[in-house]
Design a protein that fits this description.
globular, 6 helices, disordered C terminus, three-stranded antiparallel sheet, four-stranded antiparallel sheet, alpha+beta, 19% strand
Length: 207
């Protein structure tokens, strides 16, 4: 929502240009500061993820002063589309769980971890769009990533959601270890229950 995504060329390779556009309704100084900080943070997180062997696009260049990040173009299909069209890709949710666990082990929070932000290229999984990401060691923050993934799966792939999440949890726990992983998954389930409680209370208030 805050950026334009363009396909271009960088030193002879296909590249994605992510451009944070100026907001006409915002004061210039505030807009410039926000675009600078968000661009710098996203680029730093991408670099951290890549150095931690997380499957993300390579960072080619960053220009915070004008809000531009240039990164590797990952040509493939989103996990969302593949799961809609072919159940054999359910097993890729296992790798989605492993990659999120690696992200969390690096104390990165994605904040938009869904099947739409996972691309499969040549049977390899890549995580994209770290525009909302941040650093955190907090279990609650990590649990929110799992909650977001589960909510996206249930809303888009309702029939196969249980199988998809079973694979996801398997991969996540394998990478984090049972003790830490189960704490985070348990917290994700608590977040889900809190959301249901709020929804039920709103229904009561309306009636």
């Amino acid at each position: 929502a805050e950026s334009e995504i363009r396909l271009g060329d960088f030193l002879g390779s296909k590249a994605i240009y992510k451009i944070r556009v100026k907001k006409s309704y915002m004061y210039d100084d505030l807009d410039n500061d926000l675009r600078y900080e968000r661009t710098r943070r996203e680029a730093k997180i991408l670099a951290t993820a890549y150095l931690n062997n997380i499957s993300v696009p390579k960072l080619y260049a960053v220009y915070p002063s004008v809000g531009i990040i240039i990164m590797e173009y990952i040509e493939g299909n989103t996990l969302k589309d593949l799961l809609i069209n072919n159940e054999k890709y359910i097993t890729f949710s296992y790798y989605a769980g492993k990659e999120l666990a690696k992200i969390h082990k690096a104390n990165i929070i994605h904040n938009d971890y869904t099947t739409s932000n996972i691309i499969i290229r040549d049977d390899k999984l890549f995580v994209i769009d770290f525009g909302l990401s941040d650093y955190s060691t907090n279990i609650e923050d990590k649990a929110v990533d799992i909650h977001l993934y589960k909510r996206a799966v249930e809303s888009t792939h309702a029939i196969t959601s249980n199988r998809i999440m079973k694979e996801f949890y398997k991969g996540y726990l394998e990478e984090t270890g049972e003790e830490i992983g189960n704490k985070i998954i348990k917290r994700a389930k608590e977040i889900e229950l809190r959301g249901r409680y709020v929804g039920e209370r709103r229904t009561v208030w309306k009636t």
